[in-house]
Amino acid sequence: MSDLVPGGNLPLPGGAVTVRVPGPFDVSALITDDGGKVRDDADFVFYNQPAAPGARLSGDTLTVDPPSLRPGATRVTVAVSAAEPGTPLSALPAPVLRVADAGGRPLARFAPPRPRQETVLLLAEVYRRGTGWKLRALGQGYADGLAGLARDFGVDVEDDGAAAGGTAPAVAGPPGAPGVPGPPGTVAA
């Protein structure tokens, strides 16, 4: 198993890998193309939308199967936010990312520098390199909450004051359709 540092990368075996971040965190993923943008809102995987072709979220574990990603997808960026909306990550235990192959064999571990006031942390990305796939450790804090992160990656987000504080954003649907509901106890605008 490799211990990664920010910017460090590791070739991945063929097939699915699991990315796990235990603790009081919500894990999310953005499936993007070479331009760093999602194709549509279905490429944002989070607890209210836990699956997309090639990516499935179950609790604190994201399974990424690169051969099953949608056509044109070249990157899956993994982020964490506090499970309690608006909580800065500095108030929580430091997140630790663990990556394993489809058989459960540990491949990598990444303990990023401790975040300060950020509410979202870009932990890692699974990305295409030539004909294979690699994992890159990021450890980049994000101050604009999940809604800001989603917008920067091209997700159409309904503007909701709670979303800016770290709550999962309501993903806008087709005109006239309601957005994806927020976490229990919240109401999307």
Secondary structure: elements and pairs:
Layout: E1 2-4, E2 9-11, E3 17-20, E4 25-32, E5 44-45, E6 51-52, E7 55-58, E8 61-64, E9 75-82, E10 97-101, E11 106-110, E12 120-129, E13 132-142, H1 145-152, H2 161-164
Parallel strand pairs: 1-11
Antiparallel strand pairs: 2-13, 3-8, 3-10, 4-5, 4-9, 6-7, 7-8, 9-12, 10-11, 12-13
Structural class by SSE content: mainly beta
Reading off the top of the CATH hierarchy, the class is best stated as Mainly Beta
Number of helices: 2
Note the overall shape. globular
Major beta sheet, strand line-up: 1-11-10-3-8-7-6
Question: Which superfamily, in CATH terms, is the homologous superfamily?
Answer: sav2460 like domains
- Spans of at least 5 consecutive residues whose pLDDT stays below 50 are 160-168, 171-189
What is the chains' assembly state? single chain
Counted up, domains total 1
* Alpha carbon gyration radius: 16 Å
CATH topology: Lipoxygenase-1
| Strand coverage percent | 35-45%
Average residue-wise pLDDT: 85
Report the major sheet.
Answer: 7 strands, mixed
Tell me the total number of β-strands. Answer: 13
Distance N terminus to C terminus? 45 Å
- Which percent range fits the helix content? under 10%
